[in-house]
């Protein structure tokens, strides 16, 4: 089974839905943490980018995160 964060999800529709919800929840936590640090602001058109993708074993730790313009992050491929 693939790993998403520290949770395991099966290759089922229910598993995909759970994985998506988990990623959304942890992403909000990361953004809130960076907002408290003053690194991002609401409506700033910036995204939080993972240097090493979560799907490839990266983490939500501060050493794996960077703030980049939204258009740059959305243009990136996960390969």
Structural overview:
- With 79 residues, the protein is α+β, with helices and mostly antiparallel strands.
- It contains two helices and four strands; from the N terminus they run E-E-H-E-E-H.
- A hairpin with a 2-residue loop joins strand 1 (3-4) and strand 2 (7-8).
- It is globular, with a radius of gyration of 13 Å.
Helices and strands in order, then pairings?
Elements lengths: L2 E2 L2 E2 L4 H24 L9 E5 L14 E5 H6 L4
Antiparallel strand pairs: 1-2, 3-4
Structural descriptors:
two-stranded antiparallel sheet; 79 residues; 2 helices; alpha+beta; single chain; two-stranded antiparallel ribbon; globular; disordered N terminus; 38% helix
Structure described in brief:
The chain is an alpha+beta fold. The protein has helices at 13-36, 70-75, and strands spanning 3-4, 7-8, 46-50, 65-69.
- Provide the gyration radius in Å: 13 Å
Number of strands: 4
Biggest β-sheet, characterized? 2 strands, antiparallel
- Describe the oligomeric state of these chains in a short phrase: single chain
The rounded distance between the terminal residues' Cα atoms is: 19 Å
Please state how the strands of the largest beta sheet are arranged side by side: 1-2
Helix content: 25-40%
Overall 3D shape? globular
β-strand percent reads 15-25%
């Amino acid at each position: 089974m693939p790993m998403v964060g520290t949770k395991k999800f099966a290759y089922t529709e229910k598993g995909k839905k759970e994985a998506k919800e988990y990623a959304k929840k942890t992403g909000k936590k990361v953004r809130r943490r960076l907002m408290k640090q003053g690194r991002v602001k609401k409506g700033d058109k910036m995204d939080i980018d993972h240097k090493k993708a979560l799907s490839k074993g990266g983490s939500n730790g501060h050493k794996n995160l960077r703030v980049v313009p939204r258009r740059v992050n959305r243009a990136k491929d996960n390969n």
